[in-house]
Amino acid sequence: MLTSVLVSVDLSPNADRVWSRVARLPLAPGARVTLLHVVPKELAGSAQLRAVDDATDALYALTSRGPTELLGRCEIERLVLIGEPSKRIGEQVKKRRAELVVLGRGPGRAFRDRALGSTAERVLRAGQTPVLVVRRLARHAYEKALAALDVDDAAAKAVAFSRKVLGAVGALDVVHATSAPFRGQFYPSLGADYARDYERRHQRTRLAELKRSIKRARPGVAVKFHGRTGPARVVVPEAVSSFSADLLILGTHARSQMGAAVLGTVAGDLLREVPCDVLVVPAGRI
């Protein structure tokens, strides 16, 4: 169960979606939930003071009109700061030893480009703390989680941390997308049959490596593995749809690689495009 969660919200309807999800996370009795809003540092003078007052009122209103499950069993702190959002989030993560950062994501392109191109991306790049990006209004705990994993050190860490977010959910479905190294190339002497056979063998080998990696880590959760052929940008959204997943779990590499390896490529596309919530777990955290 989670013992310390940092929840960063704006003052849009996204905040209600985020709070509805936080209320349904498996939080330990007495867990600390820090509800944070960061006022842009560009505001100055009386405008800044008014914005702080408005944000403070909004945070209290959010907790009063939203789900009340947290109020009796968790320690809730409402905090309004001034500055650059990702920097302030990072500072509060360290100060409160937060295990998870929760952010919102809107359905429109403008919000996606603004928020995921800045705040969430910078939080992920700068730290080692898992980030849950919420898109949907939550009416119950997660029921169908899907992890999209590669064969690397991030896979086992992502599966292990998922227990803290999923709680009593049963088996976790894991999808692994593979493509033969020469997929899309045409070598006349090899032929289509060889290419198909090689791709099947390549998929079995990679899936077996992933299974061994996760098994060695003893993640403490039952895992069902599913191999799929094709690029991850295509395979994973299709899997999210076919499994009716309400949460997609992604493992990422060390933060020195974060900007280019995660949000700039496949995982970044998935984070922006899939219709469900996304949990991103840096490998170095667990």
TrEMBL record:
Ranges where the UspA domain occurs: 1-135, 142-282
InterPro entries attached to this UniProt entry: Rossmann-like_a/b/a_fold (IPR014729), Universal_stress_UspA (IPR006015), UspA (IPR006016)
Pfam families: Usp
Gene3D superfamilies named in the record: HUPs
Homology family: Belongs to the universal stress protein A family.
Name of the protein described by the UniProt record: UspA domain-containing protein
Organism: Archangium gephyra
